[in-house]
Task: inverse folding
């Protein structure tokens, strides 16, 4: 199952709105087939593994990171494929919460006499597919907040200079994070200041993430890097109902997708905006700031993971902080995260935290 989970991770960022699933088929102590969900969500992991195993799948054990699907969609159910291959046993990590499956896959297997064992490495599988699970259960995507700061928590000098606070190894890991998320998201302030591209670079051929801009009144320029490349890889602009019509037309002409969200006071309703993105299929979003959007997500309790990149540098109080105001009254009100991992990246560090 641990091997199946490592295979499943290869699909992160490539398979939305589907889950990233891994499958390993073992017969007589030997791996005879393995597979993972392919880009775009098809074929499924079980089908790939069964194709590789061929006739050796008969009487074998299939280790699958998520309950095999039981419904007819773009492809027949994976539970039926396992039955047709005459496997003897299926071991799974998670029950699929999708109401079209949710126990039905396990039941189909048991109904024909296949032994089913559930709950193997469940915690690891839950974290791996946290985005898919959150979208199905809560109608929201899993949000990772990325911060790249100095030791004193600054992201730029007072003049706005920020390139580069962290070094090449840290920046390369940021691209790796982008690659494992369905989308990369920034606010309009960051877009106007930095004119970012937000694509994955220098990691070989890969499916590019959706590039999302939260821009209530569509202030960002259609002539920007995002606008100029919107037909090469997707750009979605989340805007308010009061965004000017000429701006709508200008951005639509670039090939960008516009997503309207309601307002909460003077700002976009972030929970509603994220729900709209989940409804379009997104399961995992990496937020790269800036401080205003990051703080708003934290205040709303919409951050699930935090990736903190820290450089051995000091800027001082006049520098720009990583987070805007959180409106905390007491220390007890401060949101807390649990440390999951620490990495040394040349002169910098990366700490990964879970909510």
Result:
């Amino acid at each position: 199952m641990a091997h199946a989970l490592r295979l499943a991770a290869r699909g992160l960022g490539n398979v939305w709105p589907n889950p990233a699933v891994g499958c390993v088929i073992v017969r007589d102590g030997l791996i005879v087939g393995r597979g993972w969900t392919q880009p775009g969500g098809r074929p499924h992991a079980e089908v790939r593994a069964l194709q590789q195993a061929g006739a050796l799948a008969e009487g074998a054990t299939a280790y699958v990171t998520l309950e095999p699907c039981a419904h007819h969609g773009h492809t027949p159910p994976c539970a039926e494929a396992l039955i047709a291959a005459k496997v003897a046993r299926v071991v799974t990590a998670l029950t699929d919460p999708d109401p079209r499956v949710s126990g039905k896959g396990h039941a189909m297997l048991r109904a024909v006499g296949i032994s089913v064992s559930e709950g193997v490495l469940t915690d690891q599988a839950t974290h791996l597919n946290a985005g898919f699970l959150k979208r199905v259960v809560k109608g929201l995507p899993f949000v990772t907040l990325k911060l790249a700061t100095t030791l004193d928590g600054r992201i730029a000098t007072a003049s706005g200079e920020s390139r580069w606070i962290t070094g090449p190894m840290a920046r390369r890991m940021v691209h790796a994070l982008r690659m494992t998320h369905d989308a990369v998201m920034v606010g309009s302030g960051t877009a106007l200041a930095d004119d970012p591209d937000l694509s994955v670079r220098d990691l070989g051929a890969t499916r590019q993430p959706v590039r999302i801009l939260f821009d209530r009144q569509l202030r960002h320029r259609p002539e920007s890097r995002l606008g100029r490349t919107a037909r090469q890889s997707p750009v979605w602009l989340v805007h308010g109902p009061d965004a000017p019509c000429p701006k709508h037309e200008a951005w639509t002409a670039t090939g960008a997708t516009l997503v309207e969200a309601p307002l909460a006071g003077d700002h976009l309703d972030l929970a509603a905006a994220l729900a709209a993105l989940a409804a379009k299929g997104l399961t995992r979003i990496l937020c790269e700031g800036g401080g205003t959007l990051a703080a708003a997500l934290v205040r709303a309790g919409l951050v699930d993971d935090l990736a903190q990149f820290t450089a051995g540098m000091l800027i001082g109080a006049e520098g720009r902080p990583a987070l805007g105001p959180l409106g905390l009254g007491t220390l007890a009100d401060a949101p807390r995260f649990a440390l999951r991992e620490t990495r040394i990246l040349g002169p910098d560090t990366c700490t990964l935290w879970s909510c």
Summary: The radius of gyration is 22 Å. The chain has a mean pLDDT of 94.
